[in-house]
Amino acid sequence: MKVKEVVDRILTACDTPQIPETCDQLMAGDWDCEVTGIITTFMATVDVIKETIAKGANLIITHEPTYFTGLDKTDWLQGDEVFRGKQNLIVRNKINIWRFHDHMHMIRPDLIYVGLNKELDWEKYNLLNDPHCYLIPTTTVEKLSVFLKEKLNVKAVQIIGNKQSSVERVGFLVGGGSLGLGSEHMPMELMRNKQLDVIVGGEILEWTLCAYVRDAAQLGLNKSLIILGHNRTEEVGMKYLPAWLERLFPDMSISFIEAGEPFSYL
Amino acid sequence: MKVKEVVDRILTACDTPQIPETCDQLMAGDWDCEVTGIITTFMATVDVIKETIAKGANLIITHEPTYFTGLDKTDWLQGDEVFRGKQNLIVRNKINIWRFHDHMHMIRPDLIYVGLNKELDWEKYNLLNDPHCYLIPTTTVEKLSVFLKEKLNVKAVQIIGNKQSSVERVGFLVGGGSLGLGSEHMPMELMRNKQLDVIVGGEILEWTLCAYVRDAAQLGLNKSLIILGHNRTEEVGMKYLPAWLERLFPDMSISFIEAGEPFSYL
């Protein structure tokens, strides 16, 4: 089966409305290349590409960009040694990289949240009439942070607010969702409208949601923020994607390679 | 002296070109209010406002927003309990808040970097024909991280790359500068053009600079990233701002209140 047939079958299965200017493009490779195996990952880093080659696969389905900006433009990278090194690795080994981002989030249910709910066993708590909000058994910010840190294998959790606060109404904005997806105040409006005790998030900016929650806590309101990072909140969606793909490609070798949290800490 | 006279005198001293649509606005208070004392801070959080009141001052000069978005719009905050609580505190105590951001960065030298250079004693290393780049005595990523963690009192430093890498060419993009200031690839172009071994940054997104540096390190190139956060890289500019203001207002009480790193860690 060729790359084009794999991607077409995935898009047909998604059955989402047409997305104009989607980032879900073939970032490297050739539509006519015969697929030897599929790898799913959060990001096609150099190490993920090397491991793909070692496994004998040649189609990487990545959630995030390959070339360091939202739309994977490469004009500004001409002559760049990082780009050249990565591209050489890709071209020499005839690796194909297709991005599966917008359609993954647009399909219902959102396939990233499908993986997250499986990993946390939280589907049963999805009770607040919003796919990003949960009503969980009453706990504290600290205990919830410990649970998430262990379940999602996070090296360091950032917390704003009082760790001993009671929480049961939780918003979970994975990846860049906690930035607001083009609307700086969306996460704060979600917190207000759904009367959330805590938001668990991926990416943050210190002057938006962080500032709001810090002020709320300093005013004595029961609001907190637990930050796990982009990779840690979304990679779990790519971990469970092979199970969804196997139904479409029963005869294909399909596996997940973890890109991993990019940071070490000091 | 009234709020208006204080701000006018500061803007005259800046002597920057006119900035259209600047965020440097009076966010709270009254231009005609008599100033009892000036406080400088990274962000006029609820706790900073309370401490300002306790000190008997009534004009806060803040670098970052008061109302949780870049331009401090408040239309979306009507009826919000966090906004109401903060605004009540401000109004009841007749606090004035003026934002000093764009002009602070536009004046030459940039007043945030003035504070940073003083705190690190790095002005002498500013040798790469760029105000954001330094040539420091050869060290390692780990040793540089330890130095910065101690000097800037950072709770947790995030690192990408090899901690044992040798570094001497350093880019330092404070605050939101490491996001690229509207150009996602600016920090990577700076790294390439100035042949930087490491960028020290404030805010990050995992799919841009982080991804570039991780790939570079995985390719064996000598590139690293040290992330200190927005508050930790810019508050130092506000710490040294009273020294600059005292020349303009020799008879005024002026002091710095630390907003502080917003996070705790687990």
List keywords for this structure.
5-stranded mixed sheet, homodimer, 36% helix, alpha/beta, 266 residues, globular
Please, could you describe this protein's structure?
Two copies of one chain form a homodimer. Chain A is built from ten helices and eleven strands. The first copy, chain A, has helices at residues 3-14, 46-55, 81-92, 102-106, 111-120, 141-151, 186-193, 209-218, 230-239, 241-248, and strands at residues 26-28, 38-41, 59-62, 96-99, 133-140, 158-160, 166-173, 198-201, 224-227, 254-256, 264-265. In chain A, the strands form two sheets. Chain A has a five-stranded mixed sheet with strand order 1-4-3-2-10, sandwiched between helices. A five-stranded mixed sheet of chain A has the order 5-7-8-9-6. The radius of gyration of chain A is 19 Å and the shape is globular. The model of chain A has no long low-confidence stretch (mean pLDDT 97). Chains A and B meet through helix 3, helix 6, strand 6, helix 7 and helix 8 of A and helix 3, helix 6, strand 6, helix 7 and helix 8 of B.
Assembly context of the chains: homodimer
Largest interface (C-beta under 8 Å):
A-B, 57 and 57 residues
Rg of chain A (CA only) = 19 Å
Distance between the termini of chain A: 47 Å
Secondary structure tally: strands of chain A: 11
Order of helices and strands of chain A: HEEHEHEHHEHEEHEHEHHEE
- Give me the side-by-side strand order of the main sheet of chain A: 1-4-3-2-10
